Amino acid sequence: MPRIARQEKPLPANRLTIRLDLASGARIGPGKVALLEAIERHGSISAAGRELRMSYRRAWDLVEALNKALGTAVVSTATGGAGGGGATLTATGAAVVAEYRAIEREALATALPRIEAMLRPSRG
User: Fold this and answer.
1) What residue ranges of the chain have pLDDT lower than 50?
2) Which residue segments constitute the domains of the chain, with CATH numbers given?
3) What is the β-pairing status of strands 86-89 and 20-21?
4) Residue 74 and residue 67: Cα distance in Å, rounded?
5) Residue by residue, what is the 3-state secondary structure of the chain?
6) Phi/psi-derived region of residue 7, left when phi > 0, alpha when psi is between -120 and 50, beta in every other case
7) pTM (global) more than 0.70
8) pLDDT tens-digit map of 65-80
9) pLDDT at 15
């Protein structure tokens, strides 16, 4: 039987992680934004939590923390029942995701040359 070559995992690209520390003391970072994106994909807080390997309670607490920090709902929920419930991002929730990802892209574009320079061997 022929041997199957083991595929090596590609090395991750250099990246930058952004966390916004708001004047209110609230924080918005990659975890909360990923949760909002998963809620939008699945239409469900519980399904989003499962995808991200967190309990429904943890997912709900993160959504509530965002609601409190921003003073408005980031997710709109429909009560379950025979047809099931659901969740969608509000305009505020969608804006949080879009603006966070824009900040992330712009910061990486600025930081990447410096990250690469930092990793280059010294010539002196």
Assistant:
1) none
2) 20-74+85-119 (1.10.10.10)
3) unpaired
4) 6
5) CCCCCCCCCCCCCCCCCCCEECCCCCEECHHHHHHHHHHHHHCCHHHHHHHCCCCHHHHHHHHHHHHHHHCCCCEEEECCCCCCCEEEECHHHHHHHHHHHHHHHHHHHHHHHHHHHHHCCCCC
6) beta
7) yes
8) 999 999 999 999 988 6
9) 81
